[in-house]
């Protein structure tokens, strides 16, 4: 059955049935004019929206309906984790071609719910409309946090740290774009999982609540160097990244070697990584390493903050490494 046969309200009814009533703090989820959420008794609400557009963020032939939903939610929730928050609710506006299979649309939206649930949130509403040809998703994520983690609080003397390993997403993208693999299911296992189910670092956000002060943080969804530049700008400081310390993913190295590409550059500038870049006072680093490693997440010191401006990447000898671009900018042409 196609969407024009099922109709907007038929699709919404199927989604509502699959999602059910939802969980705290959602009092009223799908079904009324707006969702009703219980306000947190303390702290802040965190709200973010993330667009996920066919042709721009993904290619249709690379992903299944369910993978599209998971990736869109991972990207949106990563911004909540980057603010040091926990996830409460997700909303999705979906523009879908009316010629699309109804089952495809249902799988996609149900995956949005599954991914939200995986991270402790509920799909609490959305909007549905016909799109002329491409799939368009907009995911709104709502979270809460005690003290928001900002881009603007890095200080000279701070240490830069990054979670997990880098370059996996760039390697996956290379394999897809070069046609080495036909779709995400064809990726090597170590790349496949992180590509189709990007994991927002909520575990890190949770455990680092114990630090004496909230870290300066950003998720590196546009690429490490570019997102580091956002911290430098917002905090009015200079960031130095030590290339030799970058935790380049092993599979990224392998794929880069086979492709004759530079794994380090992929790790420095590849987007869709969803790891966190943190700036912390030196005397908090040991505690942060202990807390994060206890969660089974790798945390690596990769540089430092000084007075000044901008981001410099240096090699082991301290010489600057020139990069032609730092990451992803939707309106720039490279
Ligand atoms: P309205 O006309 O007031 O915008 P809709 O008929 O669009 O209401 O939506 C009815 C209910 O279904 C609302 O609770 C809305 O949040 C929910 N909803 C609509 N589309 C989606 C979707 N794609 N995913 C989840 N919930 C949806
Ligand atoms: Mg509506």
Largest sheet: 6 strands, mixed
Q: Order of strands across the widest beta sheet?
A: 8-10-7-11-9-12
Mean model confidence by pLDDT: 95
What is the CA-atom radius of gyration, in angstroms? 20 Å
Distance between the termini: 42 Å
- The computed structural class is alpha+beta
Low-confidence stretches: none
Q: Indicate the percent of residues in helices.
A: 25-40%
CATH architectural arrangement of the largest domain = Alpha-Beta Complex
CATH topology of the largest domain: Phosphoribosyl-aminoimidazole Synthetase, Chain A, domain 2
Molecular structure report:
By secondary structure, the protein is α+β, with helices and mostly antiparallel strands. The protein has 2 domains: 42-145, PurM-like, N-terminal domain (60s Ribosomal Protein L30, Chain: A); 159-314, PurM-like C-terminal domain (Phosphoribosyl-aminoimidazole Synthetase, Chain A, domain 2, Alpha-Beta Complex), CATH 3.90.650.10. 34% of the residues lie in helices and 23% in strands. The protein contains 11 helices and 12 strands. The protein has helices spanning 3-6, 8-19, 65-82, 102-118, 168-177, 189-196, 202-207, 224-235, 250-259, 263-269, 285-294; strands at 26-28, 36-37, 44-53, 86-96, 122-130, 136-145, 159-163, 216-219, 238-242, 276-280, 299-306, 310-314. It has a 6-stranded mixed sheet with strand order 8-10-7-11-9-12, sandwiched between helices. The chain has a 4-stranded mixed sheet with strand order 3-6-4-5. β4, α4 (102-118) and β5 (122-130) form a beta-alpha-beta unit. The longest helix is centred in the first third of the chain and has 18 residues, at 65-82. The radius of gyration is 20 Å and the shape is globular. The N and C termini lie far apart (42 Å). The mean pLDDT is 95. The structure holds adenosine-5'-diphosphate and magnesium ion. Adenosine-5'-diphosphate binds at residues 12, 15, 30-33, 92, 94, 109, 123, 125-128.
């Amino acid at each position: 059955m196609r969407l024009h046969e099922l109709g907007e309200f038929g699709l919404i009814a199927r989604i509502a049935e699959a999602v059910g009533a939802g969980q705290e703090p959602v009092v009223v989820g799908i079904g009324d004019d707006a969702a009703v959420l219980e306000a947190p008794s303390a702290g802040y609400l965190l709200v973010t929206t993330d667009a996920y557009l066919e042709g721009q963020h993904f290619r249709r032939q690379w992903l299944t309906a369910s993978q599209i939903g998971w990736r869109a939610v991972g990207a949106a929730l990563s911004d909540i984790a980057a603010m040091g928050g926990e996830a409460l609710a997700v909303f999705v506006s979906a523009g879908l071609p009316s010629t699309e299979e109804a089952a495809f649309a249902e799988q996609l939206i149900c995956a949005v719910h599954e991914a939200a649930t995986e991270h402790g949130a509920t799909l609490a509403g959305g909007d549905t409309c016909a799109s002329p040809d491409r799939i368009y998703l907009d995911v709104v994520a709502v979270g809460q946090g005690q003290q928001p983690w900002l881009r603007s609080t890095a200080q000279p003397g701070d240490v830069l740290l990054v979670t997990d390993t880098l370059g996996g997403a760039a390697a996956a993208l290379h394999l897809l774009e070069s046609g080495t693999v036909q779709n995400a299911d064809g990726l090597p296992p170590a790349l496949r999982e992180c590509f189709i189910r990007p994991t927002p670092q909520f575990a890190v956000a949770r455990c680092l609540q114990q630090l004496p002060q909230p870290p300066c943080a950003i998720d590196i969804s546009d690429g490490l160097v570019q997102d580091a530049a956002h911290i430098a700008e917002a905090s009015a400081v200079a960031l130095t990244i030590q290339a030799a310390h970058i935790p380049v993913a092993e599979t990224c190295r392998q794929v880069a070697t086979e492709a004759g590409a530079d794994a380090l550059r992929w790790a420095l500038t590849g987007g869709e990584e969803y790891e966190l870049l943190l700036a912390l006072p030196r005397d908090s680093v040991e505690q942060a390493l202990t807390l994060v490693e206890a969660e089974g997440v790798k945390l690596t010191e990769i540089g430092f903050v000084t007075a000044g401006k901008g981001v410099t990447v240096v090699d082991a000898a301290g010489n600057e490494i020139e990069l032609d671009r730092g990451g992803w900018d939707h309106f720039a042409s490279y």
